[in-house]
Amino acid sequence: MPPTPGRPTDWGLSDEWFTDFITDLQNSPTRRRRLHRERIVALPVKDTLAVTFQEKTEQLRRYLAGEREKDIA
C-alpha cells in the first residue's frame, strides 16, 4: 500500500498497520461473536416514551430557567 501523497513516509507505515489491524479484527471469529452479543437491543415502547418525555421535560426546564434569568437581569 503506497503512502498517502503529502504525508511523510512513516505515516504510510501507520496507515498500513491500522488497515491490517482492522482487517484482522473484522476477520476474527471471536470479535464477530462479541459483535453479535453487543448488538443494539431495542427498548420497549414504554421505556422509549419515558426517555423521550424525560428529555423533553429537561429541555423545557432549561428553557424556563433561561427565561427566568432574562427576567431577573
Task: Tell me what the structure shows.
The chain has 73 residues and is mostly helical. It has 2 domains: 10-39; 42-73. The protein is 77% helix and 0% strand. It is built from 3 helices and no strands. The radius of gyration is 25 Å and the shape is elongated. The mean pLDDT is 82.
Short description:
The protein is mostly helical and 73 residues long. The protein contains three helices and no strands.
What descriptors fit this protein?
single chain, 73 residues, mainly alpha, 2 domains, 3 helices, 0% strand, elongated
Topology, please?
Layout: H1 9-27, H2 29-37, H3 45-72
Q: What amount of the residues lies in strands?
A: under 5%
Number of domains: 2
In which range does the helix fraction lie? over 70%
User: Unreliable runs, pLDDT <50, ≥5 residues?
Assistant: none
How many helix segments?
3
Order of helices and strands: HHH
**How many extended strands?**
0
Mean pLDDT across all residues, rounded? Answer: 82
Gyration radius (Cα, Å) is 25 Å
Principal-axis shape: elongated
The main sheet comes to: none
Distance between the termini: 62 Å
Structural class by helix and strand composition: mainly alpha
